[in-house]
Amino acid sequence: MLQSVAEFVLQYSPQSSPQTFSSLVLVTAAIFCIVSVLLSLVRQRKLAVKSVDGVPGPDGHWLKGHLDYEKWSSQQGGEVELFHHVSLMTLDSVLKCALSYRTNCQTQKKQDPYIVVVYEASGQILDRLMNPLIHNDTIYKLTPDGRRFFKNCAFVHAKADGIIKARRKALQDDEEKEKLRKKKHLDFLDILLEAKDENGSSLTDEEIVGEVVTFMFAGHDTTASVISWTLYNLARFPEHQEKCLEEIEEVFGNSSEIEWKQLGKLKYLLMCIKESCRLFAPVPIISRTLDRTYEIDGHLVPEGTWVMTNVYALHLNPHVWRDPKKFDPLRFTTENAKEMSPYAFIPFSAGPRNCIGQSFALTEVKLSLAMIIRKFKLSVNPDNYVPIEDMIPELILRAKNGIKVNIAPRA
């Protein structure tokens, strides 16, 4: 049986391990000491799988089942809003990869309530950050928006709790236990459920819920943003789309099977992904709490101060980037990268709290884009270009009216 993209990313990525549960988003490390224990377990595991059985086939095709493949194929150049479809695919992927949870969120007719709540909560978090009057929890809970936000949080936690309980129940089955013992690579949730400290104590459900909620959000919304904006740019610039297609065909040929090492050969596609992340930073703003007093631009900023970095502005800073508004993947050639400051390009943040899941994300992004470009020709009407005033800098970068492109099946 040919495997889905989600299963590929989990089982065959050298980095698709419990390391991938850290977040791009602004969240607090709830159980840092236990996370450290899990990371030490990861380092001891031998990840030696090098190939996959094959690109997903018709019956279980991730494009067919996960991105309305039949609808896309029948449109013959019709318009598609990318972010909705892609975010469902990435949510399904992270649920399968990290949590052993299978869902029909991509094929059900009604919009998945989790997606709706995540969209709404993202906007609420940004609105609250920008308004000091409602930073206090007690005051915020008295406002209509605050009550709605905490209701949304309760829904997300209930969703995570349900997934955890379902997995606990499944692991009581002898057949499922045997499958777990035979697994070469435990997924994120199984690691959390099995983890014990030096005293033999397991994680509490509350601790696990906190990590699962973080991973569910960070593992799907940010990845969906990268995929969607990259497809948008390739639709806008067909010359780069054709170069990516030529590279994909050269690497994969007519084979229905791929090997792990082949993904590393998609160098031009990776440059297009990076340039898209520069122009459309998936997480436009990151923050840190200062651990000591720093001097910033001649001013002393005391310990405990909350500071923000505008990644979107950094990536378009003309003092850092030549012709910053131009889509130019060649900025990220090996030669050019050597001349680049390590803090000039930070789509996955930087420093000791950078995104530990970026290898997982990039694997999913590269494979997803390669399969889409191989199947479909993308274009975009000038009316659907996204002007800067229509960009919504929530926890991730969205477009006010969606990211719309035209698609047509390749002959």
Task: Tell me about this structure.
With 411 residues, this protein is mainly alpha-helical. It has a single domain (70-409), classed as Orthogonal Bundle (Cytochrome p450). It contains 18 helices and 9 strands. The protein has helices at 5-12, 32-44, 62-66, 69-75, 82-99, 113-129, 137-141, 144-170, 174-182, 188-194, 205-218, 221-236, 238-252, 260-263, 267-279, 311-315, 334-338, 358-375; strands at 79-81, 285-289, 294-296, 299-301, 306-310, 376-379, 391-393, 397-399, 404-409. The strands form 4 sheets. A 3-stranded antiparallel beta sheet has the order 1-9-6. It has a two-stranded antiparallel sheet with strand order 2-5. A two-stranded antiparallel sheet has the order 3-4. Its cofactor is heme. This is Cytochrome P450. Pfam families: p450. Belongs to the cytochrome P450 family.
Give the full name of the CATH homologous superfamily: Cytochrome P450
Q: Which shape, going by the Cα principal axes?
A: globular
Q: Name the strands of the widest sheet in spatial order.
A: 1-9-6
Q: How would you classify the quaternary structure?
A: single chain
Please provide a brief summary of the model.
The protein is mainly alpha-helical and 411 residues long. It has 18 helices and nine strands. It is 50% helix and 9% strand.
SSE layout:
Elements lengths: L4 H8 L19 H13 L17 H5 L2 H7 L3 E3 H18 L13 H17 L7 H5 L2 H27 L3 H9 L5 H7 L10 H14 L2 H16 L1 H15 L7 H4 L3 H13 L5 E5 L4 E3 L2 E3 L4 E5 H5 L18 H5 L19 H18 E4 L11 E3 L3 E3 L4 E6 L2
Antiparallel strand pairs: 1-9, 2-5, 3-4, 6-9, 7-8
Helix pairs in contact: 1-5, 1-18, 5-11, 5-12, 6-8, 8-11, 12-15, 12-18, 13-15
